[in-house]
Amino acid sequence: MHTSLLRRSAVLCLALSFGAGLLASADDSSSISNDPQTGKAASRKQSARPGGPASSRAQDDEAVRARAERLHRQSIVIDTHNDITSPLLEDGFDLGMRGDDPSAKIKTHTDLRRMKAGGLGAEFFAVYVDKEFVKKKPAEGGGAARRALDVIDVVKEQIRRHPESLEAASTAADIRRIVKSGKIAALMGIEGGHAIEDSLPALRMFYKLGVRYMTLTHTNTNDWADSEGDINNSSVNHHNGLTDFGRDVVHEMNRIGMMVDISHVADKTFYDVIAATRAPVIASHSSARAIANHPRNMSDDMLKAVARNGGVVMVNFYDGFLDPRKAELALRSRTMEDELKVKYPNDPKRAQEEIEAWRKANDPGKTPLSVLMDHIDHIAKVAGIDHLGIGSDFDGVPLTGLPVGMEDISKLPILTYELMKRGYSDADIRKFLGENLLRVMSQVERVASEMTSNPPAPSNK
Ligand SMILES: [Zn+2]
User: Fold this and answer.
1) One of 81, 294, 378, 387 is an active-site residue; which one?
2) Residue-range domain boundaries for the chain
3) 72, 109, 239, 264: which is the annotated catalytic residue?
4) Record: fold of 7-33+75-453
5) Residue 378: active-site member
6) Tens digits of per-residue pLDDT, 121-139?
7) What is the reported pLDDT for 333?
8) What's the pTM value of the predicted model, to 2 decimals?
């Protein structure tokens, strides 16, 4: 997600103001399991057992929990969007640290211990490039391609430092092999197409460095694709979707085997991509607009288009996109952020303080886990169970910006339990947890090998 350059300080501010949010998580998740709204399976079974409804319900719930735990540990669990790279690069965080230690200076959703507790099999680390890097000088850490390289370096360094836990993966087959060996497969996705600086050679080199997807835009329209983030800003030069060069980028990604990610793009860009791509696409971290009306979420028509394309929508856990009340507030705060930047052009701290105070005053409270499960249910219904997965956005959102019970990456097993209670089969749950993404990745690899054996004339801008 990433709201602004000031994101890290915003996260820290929220951590201070909301106190021990992460610590309360274990208790919160058990209370969710007793929520009558989500306890359908347990209450259905209760009449079949002797010994009193309360005790049999507890026994049934225990049995579902045990079965869910087993299924989760046996499945390949893949998350396609994790922004822990920002604390790694900017704050000196290391995945071996404990980001949930109350006394820790750097608090996170993600570290190795909690990735393992969450049963994670593969992580796509976000190579996030803030739009500001486009115009930054080298002395300030710019430009955009250099920033992407700096993030890639920090991911590779983590893999080097933790060989017992992490291994770099390049293919779907690599992910299966690495998970079997008991390690976590590490992959990367570039967030923000401006990172290639309008160069297909740079795109190809990023692939060679291990990047396996690229989100075509972040919140900014670039030289070849419109973003939903600024689509209503008339001072931005828009293209009505993808330009011809944008189509070249999509084709080159198809040809080299890099997944095309349509999270963050404007709706017209999305449809242009669907028309142009020769391989299935992904939405690396997007949820359902029918439930929370935010343009970062996907409409039912878009969900159906991804299904026809054979792609996959990876559900985002950020409560600002999941919770309809918060989606509305997020849109309002986006406008406000722009206004405050104009009001305090030389005082970003003041602007940030004002927006935080406003957010706090308007906070509608915690988002229940059932809202996240409703997004999953909705996408399963509209796009189909074959087109659904996990795109957490951990560490790309405020520390407390997640539903109750999904406070950090260790909580992933609750998804398997909740889906089981909602009546999903074991095979369907496995698809959601990782098999769908593996299918799309294999298909993208197949299209690339077909296109490489018949290479099109290379084009550049
Ligand atoms: Zn994002």
Assistant:
1) 81
2) 7-33+75-453
3) 264
4) TIM Barrel (3.20.20)
5) no
6) 999 999 999 999 999 999 9
7) 83
8) 0.86
